[in-house]
Amino acid sequence: MFNIALFGCGRIGKVHAVNIAAHPNTQIKAVIDPYHEGAVQLANQYGATVMSVDEAMADKDIHAVCICSATDTHADLIEQAALAGKAIFCEKPIDLSLSRVAACLEVVDNAGVKLLVGFNRRYDPQFRTLRELFDSGAVGKAETLVITSRDPSPPPAEYVRVSGGIFRDMSIHDLDMARFILGEDPISVSAHGSCLVDPAIGEAGDIDSAVVILRFPSGAMANIINSRRSGYGYDQRIELHGSKGMLKAGNVREHLVEHWGDEHCSSAKPQNFFLERYKEAYIDEWQHFVDVLEGKAEPQCSGIDGELALELADAALESLQQHKTVELK
Amino acid sequence: MFNIALFGCGRIGKVHAVNIAAHPNTQIKAVIDPYHEGAVQLANQYGATVMSVDEAMADKDIHAVCICSATDTHADLIEQAALAGKAIFCEKPIDLSLSRVAACLEVVDNAGVKLLVGFNRRYDPQFRTLRELFDSGAVGKAETLVITSRDPSPPPAEYVRVSGGIFRDMSIHDLDMARFILGEDPISVSAHGSCLVDPAIGEAGDIDSAVVILRFPSGAMANIINSRRSGYGYDQRIELHGSKGMLKAGNVREHLVEHWGDEHCSSAKPQNFFLERYKEAYIDEWQHFVDVLEGKAEPQCSGIDGELALELADAALESLQQHKTVELK
Amino acid sequence: MFNIALFGCGRIGKVHAVNIAAHPNTQIKAVIDPYHEGAVQLANQYGATVMSVDEAMADKDIHAVCICSATDTHADLIEQAALAGKAIFCEKPIDLSLSRVAACLEVVDNAGVKLLVGFNRRYDPQFRTLRELFDSGAVGKAETLVITSRDPSPPPAEYVRVSGGIFRDMSIHDLDMARFILGEDPISVSAHGSCLVDPAIGEAGDIDSAVVILRFPSGAMANIINSRRSGYGYDQRIELHGSKGMLKAGNVREHLVEHWGDEHCSSAKPQNFFLERYKEAYIDEWQHFVDVLEGKAEPQCSGIDGELALELADAALESLQQHKTVELK
Amino acid sequence: MFNIALFGCGRIGKVHAVNIAAHPNTQIKAVIDPYHEGAVQLANQYGATVMSVDEAMADKDIHAVCICSATDTHADLIEQAALAGKAIFCEKPIDLSLSRVAACLEVVDNAGVKLLVGFNRRYDPQFRTLRELFDSGAVGKAETLVITSRDPSPPPAEYVRVSGGIFRDMSIHDLDMARFILGEDPISVSAHGSCLVDPAIGEAGDIDSAVVILRFPSGAMANIINSRRSGYGYDQRIELHGSKGMLKAGNVREHLVEHWGDEHCSSAKPQNFFLERYKEAYIDEWQHFVDVLEGKAEPQCSGIDGELALELADAALESLQQHKTVELK
């Protein structure tokens, strides 16, 4: 049984809490959150102890940390956990600054601990199936990858202000997914965007609608289509066109009941947001982390993946601002 | 060029008029309808002559008749045309009385003319494809055939009163389709029904919702589901379950544009009724009749098919009234 | 925390074991199975004790029983549990004999214990949604219900021999579903069938392909289409046609990735069988039983539902044998 | 009845020949093609006369020309027809050189004749419906338009060499479609591409896989995804994301029959290529030209539309070559 210290009791912390507790080989030993009341509540629910960061890091019975706290605490916590010799699961991103990420990963490397970065979509059964079919040769050589990724509704402008911008906050998942599916690192990035959904997002210095084009050494291209608002739920689709056809992962709908009436035939919308859509992915992601803890697997998505996705996001921002394609390396 | 005498200027007469005129090898020579004004209008539109029945039958330049008049005139017109040596296309049914049908077909046989009975759905490209795939062995041996056939909205009670009832008027198409797809003649019929859509239909002595089960010598069963009202257009579907899987012909929708909104995802309803849904079938049906005229084909759906479908409809009525399965032959 | 005695360690016993153990308010206290080795293994896995039937019934710490043993033990175990004052969850059927069922239910009634009969499909999220939409008036008054229910592949003839026949073993789920969806009890049953899938089933005195028609007091009809073999997975669909349109619950596919290639476009088959298809239903069913244990709910599917479904299955058999519609009551 | 001179007897000339002949108000009077044998055959089929260009232009009985000849003859024929006072239908493009197009359109303007440029997809019922729904406010303000347009298989390299390149030959349809749907003219173009399908295309100086991003004054973006090969038929889809949801026009399949088997569920591929997919569009396009001839409509797609689409194609090429976004005007 592995004892886990859970950092952060917010929405995503609660998702992981459920999965840690439900897994036969892990349990929550410590809960750490500056919001004391929330920490107490979660700790009580799972029979855990509320601790300070230092207490948790010093506790020899804690085997691993699950970092779900605010983004600007990730890199510090990773470093402390690494120095304390604990295995690390950290929600994306490691940090919003590439240099901070690099420094952090050096600490992790030197400590020789395992680090799994939480790009949850890599574990989604639909996208996994698509990648497996691609790997099995179902569509031959990859040519064009089209990722549609649209949130149901825009976040508040205050969130946008600290988010690092749409590329680092939202597209980063899709940039990672492109690398994950194609198994290549891009050689150029071209980004385009508009503020169409909410003027407050524009006033916060960001855009809310984006298109990003990646080119890969093989010549394959990835086309990412993002929006902060779909109007019809969480739109998460992937199309992979290859030399022998197409693979296409559709949305997961709220249910499968259709209504045929005198106006039209209607079916359910896509599941509303990531908590529903990626519920199974979070479970499988935690299973993978347990496999890492048990020495059965190496992290499928490690620090370098977090770093490369951030590099692509930064390049997208540069491309957007300079109206040109940014070459990488 | 074959000259055609068109009997009947109603809805279905107009459908055939368009197709006769559009075919490079046929033209409308005569139009016959007791409703003189309608006949004149149609004749003018196609450069044809308004004639009486006798004139048309006597006209040596008329090679074939297309009978789209009221049901109770079909058998008489078929006989007159047969005696006049003309090839005959007749809308279903030949007559609502089995004995009248038998007598009429004897006249046709003795005259040695070609008779094509208009079960239009046999020419529908979707159902044709299904049958061709079945014939090619795509699902092995037939086991269960499910035909869903629902009109968009109920006819007026006055129509119901002279229609011969739902089995002879509506289910007859599906009874023929079951024979067409499976290539067998049923050995028993079981029918069930209710009057749910419009009480006036019940008062007219008919039902508006029906289920018919046919059993075939091979053991295969056909399950026909009928209603005078779908509420969402013309519902015309076929599922054929066989020893190696299923073939399934879906509805043809009004268009292929989906709308995804905050309530649900909607797509277009099925095409509204037979004029839209079977537009292509009517064209292909007429092409087949021209092939018959040209000696290139024998009627795929002849008098005997009309007779057998009516026999099944009569058996369905008997089954409904007696609450038991009716064995045939 | 409710302590549960689990009777039967077979396939379905294991499904419930997982759900009992995963529920925060229930745990497996005792495992009972004549196959001792299986009982030991399951007991060890969940920290439970292997007991005899009498030991389990006598154990005051056991609050409820979960009966997943062979069909012919159900009624006896229900009676013993009732006399021991334990709440009862029993997999369908209570018994294959109607008189045995009636006697058993009298014992339960006299004991005043709660009995939940396991018609798992009632808890399926898809069918629940369909029923909720119907109850909310989405399609008006019910007219025709079409239930397609086809197993992926036929059971061995030995199983068929003790199964009670297709109606009592397989259609019974659909007969219950018809009552569940429509909220009415049928007034007549008409059944039709063939042995097409496996001659050994016929030699065992059963059929493997069936169609059952139910009529309800409202005039609504239910049309059940069963087969022991689909050839493409577990085909579980429901269509409800009402006065204002149709509701349609489709199959749950293995995944949502399509492959478009030079032959055709392909998508995944329906999930293979009930363990996958009704995984969530079993969890929700157990949650409902816990609600019953906690006094928060009355059994949604009690002894009388088990009895009525069996009555319908018996009537179907009578109808099949006598080639007539069987009137009920 | 309008007499039409048909220039060009190739694949697309034959499409128009059928539609001209089938329309009640038009007939083919003259056929002009340097390939004499083809001209004779087509002329015979439709009761027309083979003429030289000059004869046709001089014939006072010819009301309009339908130009389906080789691309490099279009501008000359348009000018001659304009000077001869004939209404003009011309297949796209007017010419591959923007300056030649401008000169040609000046001649047309001065002559005051009607010119309809054949961007056939504007008349496709699916895309029309999408635009009508958008115009009716179904999805609010446009945000992102995604056009997927992939040919079934690549053309021979010889064709590529004279085609003007993928942007002028293939993407031009999608560039026009973006203008047609959104009702705006782009302010910038960014293009990306690879040669992945056939090295011979690369040797011919072209690419075969392209992504083009257009930005519009409203902030809306259009994302065009092109390939010379789909591997599964003619992939023609449009998604329009707006402030209130999405409209999505799917592919038209070869038929609607699904096969469910032990491997997967399969449905028919998209119709193979433009002759099938846009059959109805060509008919509606010709109807629109007849409306123009009859003074009932102004050309919905005139010379300026042809010119603007070419401008966008040229800008795409410039963007591709210079790795930057090209601003327009």
Characterization of this structure:
- Chains A, B, C, D: Residues 2-119 form the Gfo/Idh/MocA-like oxidoreductase N-terminal domain.
- Chains A, B, C, D: InterPro entries: Gfo/Idh/MocA-like_OxRdtase_N, GFO_IDH_MocA-like_dom, Myo_inos_IolG, NAD(P)-bd_dom_sf.
- Chains A, B, C, D: GO terms for molecular function: nucleotide binding; oxidoreductase activity.
- Chains A, B, C, D: Belongs to the Gfo/Idh/MocA family.
- Chains A, B, C, D: Residues 127-247 form the GFO/IDH/MocA-like oxidoreductase domain.
- In chain A, β9 and β10 form a beta hairpin.
- Helix content of chain A is 40%, strand content 24%.
- Chain A has two domains: 2-113, NAD(P)-binding Rossmann-like Domain (Rossmann fold), CATH 3.40.50; 122-280 and 298-327, Dihydrodipicolinate Reductase, domain 2 (2-Layer Sandwich).
- The first copy, chain A, has 329 residues and is of the alpha/beta class.
- In chain A, the strands form three sheets. In chain A, strands 12-11-7-10-9-8-15 form a seven-stranded mixed beta sheet.
- Chain A contains twelve helices and 15 strands.
- The mean pLDDT of chain A is 97.
- Chains in contact: A-B, A-C, A-D, B-C, B-D, C-D.
- The interface between A and D is large, with 40 and 40 residues.
